[in-house]
Amino acid sequence: MKIRKAIFPVAGLGTRFLPATKAMPKEMLTVVDRPLIQHVVDEALEAGIEHLVFVTGRNKGVIEDHFDRPYELEDTLKGRAKLKEMELLLRDQPEAGSTSFTRQQQPLGLGHAVWCARDIVGDEPFAVLLPDVLVKHKPSGLKQMLDAAAAAGIGKANIVAVEEVPMESVHMYGVVGVGKPKGDLFELAGMVEKPKREQAPSNLSITGRYILQPEIFEILATQERGAGGEIQLTDAMLRMAEGQPFYGFKFKGKSYDCGSKSGFLAANIAYAMDRDDLRDGLREEMRQYL
Ligand code: G1P
Question: pTM here?
Answer without folding.
Answer: 0.95
